[in-house]
Design brief:
12 helices; ABC transmembrane type-1 domain-containing protein; mainly alpha; 0% strand; membrane; globular; transmembrane; MetI-like
Length: 281
């Protein structure tokens, strides 16, 4: 079936228009408004205030650090689940059930999951009561309303994205390569290290980027898990837009967060790609 240029243009017109209208235009409006001062003139005052104020710098750093920790924790869990599902499980029905179990939490609201963790991680929650019963601790730990609680909640929410990304890469590995490695005397560990792991790195990169960017922009889970005793950048942006109605400053915070996340992702992708090229030589 041959499509003319007119048909291709018509097929692409709707998605490109939606992308432009709902992504490019709002981002452009936010970017332009971030350079508007209180007097309505072009100014870099908002960005200077963000970079010169300790609370904004520390909140930005805390947001990036939490996102990096979530990504670092989700990576081994996601890889183990994906590897077991794709490489170990043979039954098609069992594999489907595992995929369903992995994505099932995504059908639940973030608010519901966050309040569920409040029950688990609270002072009198299941985790503290279990540790007290086992004699591991003498008094309840302060897990809730801390960065640790945010990391736990975000990791639970975003692990499925890591699993699906890595599983997609593992499914694309030609099984004849594994057989060839075995025929050449390679053991399970050598096959994994020299065949499976290098070929799965694109999925690892994709999953890491997805989890990191979603963690950076997360709002509901940090808001509930911190309980007003801490801040991440998304909470500051929400306050500026909704509570203070300071649109230029809220836009500047959003652009700053987006730029910082872009720099981190770009550096990570560059280093990862260089390592991937080195592993193939």
């Amino acid at each position: 079936m041959h499509l003319s240029r007119l048909h291709i243009f018509c097929l692409l017109l709707i998605p490109v228009t939606c992308l432009f209208a709902f992504c490019v235009v709002p981002l452009g409006v936010a970017g332009l408004s971030s350079f508007v001062s209180d007097t309505g003139q072009f100014s870099l005052q908002t960005y200077w205030e963000i970079l010169s104020t300790e609370i904004y710098r520390s909140t930005l750093w805390a947001t990036l650090l939490i996102s990096a920790v979530v990504t670092a924790i989700a990576l081994p869990f996601g890889f183990l689940i994906a590897y077991y599902t794709v490489m170990v499980v043979r039954g098609r029905l069992t594999r489907r059930l595992i995929y369903i179990a992995v994505i099932l939490p995504l059908f639940t609201s973030n608010i519901v999951r966050a309040f569920g963790f409040m029950v688990l991680l609270g002072r009198n929650g299941f985790v503290n009561n279990t540790l007290l019963w086992l004699g591991v601790i003498d008094k309840p730990l302060r897990i809730l309303y801390s960065d640790v609680a945010v990391v736990i909640g975000l990791t639970y929410i975003f692990v499925p994205f890591m699993v699906l990304s890595i599983a997609s890469a593992l499914q694309g590995i030609d099984r004849s390569l594994l057989q060839a490695s075995s025929d050449l005397g390679g053991g399970p560990w050598a096959t994994f290290r020299k065949v499976v792991l290098p070929l799965s790195l694109p999925g690892v990169l994709a999953g890491s980027v997805i989890v990191f960017t979603l963690s950076v922009s997360a709002f509901v889970t940090p808001s509930v898990m911190l309980g007003g005793r801490g801040k991440v950048m998304s909470m500051l942006i929400y306050e500026q837009y909704v509570s203070f109605m300071n649109f230029p400053f809220g836009a500047a915070l959003a652009i700053t967060l987006m730029f910082a996340a872009f720099v981190v992702v770009a550096l990570y992708s560059y280093v990862f790609e260089r390592k991937l090229q080195w592993s193939r030589t």
